[in-house]
Amino acid sequence: MKRIIPFLMLTMACTLWGSSFVIAKYAMKEMSSFDIAFWRSAMACIIFLPIIIKNGKKNISKKDLYSFLLIGALTVPVTYLLQFCALDYINAATAALLIGVEPISIAFMASLILGDKLKVKVIVAAFFGALGVYLVFADQAVIANWIGIVMVLLSTLVVGVWVALTKKSLKKFSTAVATAYVALFGFLSFLVVSPLINFNVGAYSFRTWFSVFLLTFTSSVLGHLLWNGGLKRVDASKAGVFLVFEPTAGVFLATILLEEAITENLVFGLLLVIFAMLLATWPNKEKQHS
Q1: Closest among 247, 235, 269 to 102, alpha carbons compared
Q2: Which of 10, 127, 163, 174 is the least buried, fewest Cβ under 10 Å from its Cβ?
Q3: Domain boundaries along the sequence of the chain
Q4: What's the pTM?
Q5: How confident is the model at residue 115 (pLDDT cuts 50, 70, 90)?
Q6: Rounded distance, CA 198 to CA 143, Å?
């Protein structure tokens, strides 16, 4: 049972991140996606502040702070800006397809930064996961432009770096402390682009702010706590395979909630993604006998 718990945490995290696409639909009626990301980051920072205050400077060196600053900057503004700007050149379906290569990027960065061995099983699982994402979005039009494609692919490498660095920090710090400091420095990094943010808070309705808060709590807070909790207990490359479940879960939940037709591609794509997750986490024979 203990072996299953971290994988359940990763699955729940990616499900919450996937559901954020549905919740964001309501907030985006009044607020831009860029502003949503900023205010989510600000709210998450406030929620995590008590953990940071309680922990103080306990066991945290300057090197640790620089590491959290780098992880926070890569996790929040850099990744988001790359993916956000890419949507000026390609559509969401194309971006989701390209993001399907994230597990391979994470496996590569984990090997480079953490010294993890590249496992054939994980690479094969990543391939099936990417194929599953392709099937999920196969019924949607693909709009490709090389600038947008490069931006999204670059963002997958950035994700690979911050996942590997987060895994490294979790060896020293608890899930809550590591997540809190990443949220803090992610928000502070976002302030660099604050001139682009609309600070007229009265311009938005209560419904929009409630949607943003719901996004913050489910995705930025609970989602990251679950993800880091799972990441702390498994290899980064294995955890990376679960990221293909994020866009898949988002489309599947949107289909159910919006009462849209469930296509064969959606069903087969979801099954392939689940198969990829099981393949990546299936114990080796020698471990089963031990």
Answers
A1: 247
A2: 174
A3: 19-282
A4: 0.83
A5: confident
A6: 29
